[in-house]
């Protein structure tokens, strides 16, 4: 947690205020959120794309049982690991949670490192409608029969513009792009050029971004993964492996899952797996730092907290 947390003062709190605490992994967001929630009668709402999944609380660094007893936490471990959750689903749940928190006379404290989640909440989303169950089933069957390559080939055929916007192996985005075209007759390229729609236009956002120095952040990333290993991350991954899930599911892409799975399958040593997971964590943290330093400033007015 930042050393100057006791000095953090949030002015002009209103009944419709939403405090947002963002930043890279291992930057101290969760600890800061708890202190802020205590100080301003808050409820913590998750904005981390890994912490929405069940089965990986250690790997995803989800709040502990003790943390949740201390302050109310919402939208943590809400989806089974078999689910491929979308930003739209999270956003709808977050908006509902924020409004319910206001109704209780409390202040929502949204915390997380998933920039796309936070951007969708603050700046809005493309007005793409939810696709029909019929089309989803059609694309799912194509995915089952031919894998992501078949889905991408179909997308290239019917919507070349969308195919250029997504990575061929990105199952989630390739599938979604094809679903959108088949259901609406419009390319995602067209939809993305339409004005954004804010799902919470009445909110008064107060956004704080933690930006630690890279050297300190890298050290914290390594320390935290060591703690995860002591806390039982390996057993967590063992349990996840028994479910035989698709490697492209978000829960399976959480940093540490693939690396420790390879160790458990005998493809690497434990030391190699841990070192690789630490490397990937550092790389992810650096990408988050870049995103929050650059793109977040374009999304909304923010206050930087250096630590």
Structural write-up:
With 307 residues, the protein is α/β, with parallel strands linked by helices. Helix content is 53%, strand content 10%. It has a six-stranded parallel beta sheet, sandwiched between helices. Helix 2 links the parallel strand 2 and strand 3. Helix 5 (133-158) packs across helix 7 (171-184) and helix 10 (233-241) crosses helix 12. The radius of gyration is 20 Å and the shape is globular.
Brief description of this entry?
This protein has 307 residues and is of the alpha/beta class.
Shape: globular
Distance between the termini: 8 Å
Q: Which structural class matches the secondary elements?
A: alpha/beta
Binned strand content: 5-15%
> If you average the pLDDT, what whole number results?
93
Radius of gyration: 20 Å
How many β-strand stretches? 6
Poorly predicted runs:
1-6
- Number of distinct helices: 13
Roughly how much helix do the residues carry, as a percent range? 40-55%
Order of helices and strands: EHEHEHEHHHHHEHHHHHE
Identify the strand order in the major beta sheet. Answer: 3-2-4-1-5-6
Largest sheet: 6 strands, parallel
